[in-house]
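Lecture notes, continued. The same structure-token format from the folding unit now serves as the input rather than the output. Read the line below as a description of shape only.
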């Protein structure tokens, strides 16, 4: 009887145990994604660019001035979907914000595409054009 009770307790607690992240890939992405999204929210392109794919950094900085006319009042991060053995990931982010020229708050949803360089160095392939266009009330270019 005691053995059955112990086995039942083990089975019940096994469902409560979270899978581990021994190499820290998921924790590193969560941290990078949060920091990048906060920098975007506060219009700090110079700090956000460190999380951008190196190939896209010049384009990102060229379009970053457009962030100056936007106010992002809040954002929510959805679940992170990992692919390719945790080398790539997609994150749904919902922004609430407005263009300073229109003052109409909009809720937009973007998908951030992330990929891992090296061990735990995650970089995003941002679509700033889509964020800016949608917060201004238009369709993405």
């Amino acid at each position: 009887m005691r053995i059955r009770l112990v086995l039942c307790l083990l089975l019940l607690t096994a469902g409560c145990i979270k899978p581990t992240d021994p190499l820290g890939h998921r924790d590193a992405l969560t941290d990078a994604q949060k920091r990048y999204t906060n920098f975007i929210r506060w219009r700090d392109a110079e700090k956000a660019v460190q999380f951008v794919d190196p190939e896209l950094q010049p384009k990102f900085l060229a379009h970053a001035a457009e962030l100056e006319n936007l106010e992002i009042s809040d954002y929510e991060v959805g679940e992170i979907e990992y692919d390719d053995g945790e080398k790539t990931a997609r994150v749904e982010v919902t922004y609430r914000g407005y263009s300073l020229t229109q003052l109409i708050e909009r809720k937009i949803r973007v998908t951030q595409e992330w990929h891992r360089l090296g061990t735990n160095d995650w970089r995003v392939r941002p679509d700033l054009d889509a964020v800016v266009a949608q917060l201004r009330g238009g369709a993405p270019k």
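Point for the exam: The radius of gyration is 20 Å.
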